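Q: Hi! First time doing this. I have a protein sequence and I read that you can turn it into a structure. Is that right? Here it is:
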Amino acid sequence: MIMLLSSTLQSVSISGPVMPLYIHSLGIGIIDWSLLVTSSALGMFLFEWIWGTLSDRVNGKHLMLFSTIAMSIILPLYAIPFPVTYFFVLQFIWGAICVVLSPITRSYVSGEAPPESVGLMVSLLWAFGALGRIIGPLVGSYLAEYCSFGCSFYASSAMALVLACVVVLTFPKTGRRTTQRATPSHRAILKERSVWLLFLSTVFTLMTFPLMRSFLPLYASQQIGMSAFEVGTLLSATAAAQLVAIPLFGWLSDRFGRKLVVVVGFGSSSVMFLFFLVAGTQSWLFLVSMAVSVGLSATSLLLAMIPEIAPNSRYGTHVGLYGSSEDLGTIIGPIIFGFVWSAFSPVLIFIVGSIVQLVSALLILGIRPKRVPRPTMD
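A: Yes, that's right. Below is the predicted 3D structure, encoded as structure tokens:
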């Protein structure tokens, strides 16, 4: 339960949902914004596997404390309206620091869950994160609309300090030193067919995350005319749909198999992306399309598939590599969607998103889960 509470606090990103609107207010264009998102994702990609590997060897509590304090220092720096090059550096550092939290909480929850309920527990981790993503956009957009963009960054900094206090007072010792001499290398891990299919599917799936979190807020603002608070409400409604759908997907996956549920979820989400074309400039239909398309995606279950396809290796290392594949998707996604938006038409990003999600579903079809016991986290 402590890890689930932490997941909620980690996701209360008050400034994150208004970041694209803030950047746009500084006169920074779509292409530069795409590269800024990529800069953050690059920091995550280069460092997440390192944090994941370290979580197998050292006390994860110390790593999380370092991350939360560093975030509280970095966030107020965004309020300084420096040139765009400043934000590139800041985004990279932010990505490298905030990604510390992910592999530690994920490996602990999914590694400690009973084999018969790992899907539900991992889904609950995502659901508690969705709870934070309901709160964050509402608070952040309200502060941006009625106070200033800077206030949202200061509030996020305060939230990071709250999370640091939670880590100090309540977190269990998550790090563990491995005593095994023979452990598989990263190259050996990726030689497993099902492993690289899962990681490749994760890359494609996470390509759509910047679309939903960065480009759709801009689309809603510029093409539909929504205010900052309306955009925040839109993102909160999307997170609310996840809060309902994710535990249901987890429960179903424990009973009917994760592969089946993931393929059906991704396929359905692919179809729903096309409904944005029907929504046009109708804000209520746009909201429904966004909530349903995100709610149907079974992304949370990709993490739960790791014990089934690679159960005999260091778990934190696998989770770290999985996280790096997520980060790679968030590096590629902004570049593609930014190019499509600028070179062709903003509305085409929905068609590209539909295709990407469909490819991810097809890759999952090639995975062959191993039905063997998972190692315990001694």
